[in-house]
Amino acid sequence: MPKGSPELTNARREEIINACEKLYRNMSFKEITIKEIGAVTSFTRTSIYNYFQTKEEIFLALIEREYNLWCDDLEMTMRKTDSMTKDEFAAALARSLELRPQLLKLLSMNHYDMEENSRLDRLTDMKTAYDRSMRTVREFLKKYFPHLSEERIHEFIYLFFPFMFGIYPYAVVTDKQWQAMKDAGMDYPEMTVYDLTYGCVKRLLENIV
């Protein structure tokens, strides 16, 4: 790939995003810096600034990618499956999020500060992917429940998406959090991404379908 080509630019952007994703598996947002990200790429730290001005922009790009991967999964399901019951629909949506723990972890972050510290065009890219995810879930509903009114679909979308932002903290609990809840006398049940999502979607469908 020639220097400065779109292919090289895209490859380097992906390498930076991949580095951020790798670090985020074991480090917190606060702990990750441009320096840390640069240490696991094949080029100098200062080169990162040719693609992203802040670490927040890198995280937005990671969220964008995760939304698009989720949409790809849902679209593949729609191509392969012609009909679903309410139970099957809830299970399919739950499985799709169970496969995207990184997306759910990213959604649980403070987006206000992250978005404020990013350029408008980078934020717009992420919001475009977010919009695609909402439109894809809308298509998912319409395919399997074609009789649903726009009002009911709107109701599902704007109940389900805010719920998504809180899945990760309930499904993934650290040892320290478990100990704190034990010390506080809390009876906290173990819950998975699948169980939480399936239960929510099933209840929503019972009210609108």
Explain what the structure shows.
The structure is a single chain. With 209 residues, this protein is mainly alpha-helical. It has two domains: 1-51, Arc Repressor Mutant, subunit A (Orthogonal Bundle), CATH 1.10.10; 58-208, Tetracycline Repressor, domain 2, CATH 1.10.357. 70% of the residues lie in helices and 0% in strands. It contains eleven helices and no strands. The mean pLDDT is 94.
In short:
It contains eleven helices and no strands.
Approximate strand percentage: under 5%
**Portion of residues in helices?**
over 70%
CATH architectural type of the largest domain:
Orthogonal Bundle
Q: Ranges with pLDDT <50 over ≥5 residues?
A: none
Count of folded domains: 2
Number of strands: 0
Q: Rg to the nearest angstrom? A: 19 Å
In the CATH scheme, what's the topology name of the largest domain?
Tetracycline Repressor, domain 2
Average pLDDT value?
94
Could you state the order of secondary-structure elements as H and E? HHHHHHHHHHH
Specify the CATH class of the largest domain. Mainly Alpha
Secondary structure elements and pairings:
Elements: H1 6-24, H2 34-39, H3 55-80, H4 86-98, H5 101-107, H6 111-116, H7 120-144, H8 150-164, H9 167-171, H10 175-183, H11 193-208
Question: What attributes characterize this protein structure?
Answer:
209 residues, mainly alpha, Arc Repressor Mutant, subunit A, Tetracycline Repressor, domain 2, 11 helices, 70% helix, globular
